[in-house]
Amino acid sequence: MRWLEYGLFLALVIGLAWPVGTYLARVFEGSPTPLDPVLRPIERALHRAMGIDPGREMSAAIYTASFVLFGVLGTIALFLLLMAQRALPGGPGDAFLSTPMTADLAANTAVSFATTTTWQAYAGETTLRYLTQAVGLVSQNFLAGASGLAVGIAFIRGLARQGSPTLGNFWVDLIRGLLWVLLPLSVIGGLVLVWQGVPLDFSPYVRAHTLEGGVQTLPQGPVAALEFIKNLGSNGGGFFNANAAHPYENPTPLTNLLALLAIAVLPASLTVTFGRMTGRPRAGWVLLGVMATLVAGGLLLCDFAESATPPQLTSLHLVGGNMEGKETRFGVGESVLTTIVTSNGATGSYNAMQDSYQALGVLAPLANMLLGEVAFGGLGGGLYGMVMITLVAAFIGGLMIGRTPSYLGKRIGMAEMRLIILYALLTPAVTLTLTSVALSVPLGRAGLVTNGGTRGLTEVLFAYASCVANNGLTMAGLDAAHPYYNLSTILAMLAGRFGLAGLALALAGRMAAQGRLATTSGTLPDDTPQFGALVLGVIVLLGGLCFLPALALGPIAEALQR
Predict the structure, then answer these.
(1) Distance between CA atoms of 412 and 499, rounded to whole angstroms?
(2) Average pLDDT, the chain
(3) Which of 41, 60, 207, 316 is deepest in the core (most CB within 10 A)?
(4) Alpha carbons 292 and 532: distance in angstroms, whole number
(5) Nearest CA-CA partner of 227 in 184, 258, 202, 205
(6) Which of 347, 150, 148 is nearest to 235 (CA)?
(7) Residue 28 lies in a domain
(8) Is residue 313 part of a domain?
(9) What is the pTM of this model?
(10) pLDDT tens digit string along 200-241?
(11) For residue 216, what are the domain limits?
(12) How many domains does the chain have?
């Protein structure tokens, strides 16, 4: 039954990829869409108000600078709001705000939301005012998500254009992503969530008397305003500490399905957009096939681990899957599906506690993040992450047949390979360095309040992998709510957001300036299942070379100790 659910979900994502990907291509190519009569006047008004000339395009360097500047300004604005939030009107009352908003926590949260990481070293219901969540966090979910989508589109243009010094206009792409994609989908999704019972209010917290005679505090707030866009914009930060396990955030099977579709469909659809804009639709489908294969592999490993009876229970003659840390209403199936989709989708919107997973169950989402979330990845980032690995495969394949390495008719020379290799090495360099330092200093080890040994190593590696991947998924056994992790994870998030995007845009600029090579009988086909298998093999090979020693000391060693 679980595998039927997994298969139907993947089929639904792949089935939606074509219409959504086609729509995205039309939006960013400026072709007519059904929303144009309403949105084009708004777009023109925004261009006039912001002084944007839509006909003036940007080089890769200027596009990157605009992207970074926009992220920096968003970070500063959110930081100031967080520091001033105690002066804001409205709920919840000060009595419920038990977590102090220190400068290091505010900086971490601001960077986290401005980079779509939403790494949360706090509980929303005990830390933030309603207005902070509804204005500060919701706005960054939209703006950071749209800017990531803009970078992905600019990267596609780099491979699609010939002899062009430009990649488009960042501000034009940003506005189109907001108006034509994120806003309409979020309005529809938010209304469905309200219909399903997700709160959208500014009411005081409710004190309820339980059947056992105790008193329970029920947090309220504008939850539906944040919930859908957090998944759609590759963010994932929860309104409540329990995130998607909380019944106010995720009350029904329909809301759980919609959340997963919001995470996966847009990134998956960008492969179809890629194929249409480059004039090579089959190449886009090959990339989507590789993504789906990786997701299926993650589901296989995680389900195998979590559906087995935990070793601690076998001596008690109990059978059944590992339900520790999981909601009984979701069970193993929907918990595993959510874990794999969120760890692949740069959206750490969890509905189960990963620290309660078995060793191999943790290995699956950790590997997804370490591989760069190339399936399906974040909004924009997943597409260019997959293409960068594909370029490595094309380079290796070209050398194997004695031909000039190329992809989609674009030559992959030494200058291009330097950028590609820097991109491939940035994630392991930052992740492994920060992990080793944290495990070497007392301040880093102080966060291991629950587990040591192999599980403790995994928790620290998981944290930095999540931040570099701009995911935000966390193992709750690591206490990251103090200055050391607040500041060190900022470095990881910035590298994963701006470092990777900058390298991708630099490569796109070089590709856009090239002409297109003629296809001959000696050209390596890049739109066949065989090429997809080569790409898949390169992903596994690079991941193993970079991370296998760390994984062997962490989750693999833990699994062998059982």
Answers:
(1) 21
(2) 91
(3) 60
(4) 11
(5) 258
(6) 347
(7) yes
(8) no
(9) 0.94
(10) 988 888 888 888 888 888 888 899 998 999 999 888 888 888
(11) 22-267
(12) 1
